[in-house]
Fold this sequence. Notes:
Blueprint: H1 15-22, H2 27-41, E1 44-45, E2 63-64, H3 66-76, H4 81-91, H5 114-124, E3 126-127, E4 145-149, E5 155-164, E6 170-175, E7 179-182, E8 189-195
Amino acid sequence: xxxxxADTSVQHLPHQLVAAVQSPRTPAEKIVxxxxxxxREGALYTPGYFNIPYPNGDLPRHQGVCTxxxxxxxxxxxxxxxxxxxxxxxxxxxxxxQLWGLKKPDPNIDHRRVPNLMxxxxxxxxxxxxxxxxxxxxxxxxxxxxxxxxxNGLYHCGILSSARNANGVPLVVHNxxxxxxxxxxxxxxxxxxxxxxxxxxxxx
Length: 204
């Protein structure tokens, strides 16, 4: 079950993390900054199919779904998942989930589907542990992407924040009804944990 913590249980950020959020430099810092900006905006969950521009297409900022949180956050770091996923699917369509009866990629929706993002990050990012415990907390870093399977069977995703709860577990920026920063990492079954872009030193 989901567990939401009160603000008083959230650890204060070290000075270096506060500085990183205010003046992001690394890709991860920029991703977190982009996610936290969305949490402040509080976009309402808006499911559906929409015709959007390509590349860098988006819904109005006050609308979106869970995948839009990830897409918008990565754009803050210079990575347009709409274009990246579309181009990868054009070259490798059969490698992506075939769940929607499509015969070719669709740049309006492909990057807004969790299974497609999982496939992209598995192919081009770094796949990380699914376990959340004291021994693995160091592997859960700000800017990482987490994917869940909800209790109702639907897919969900979010971005790890730079804040942690009293046990050291990262908070997550996600949109399941309204975009927010929340203590929910262990609230559902974790099925994916990725870092993008992966460290250039990591050849896996």
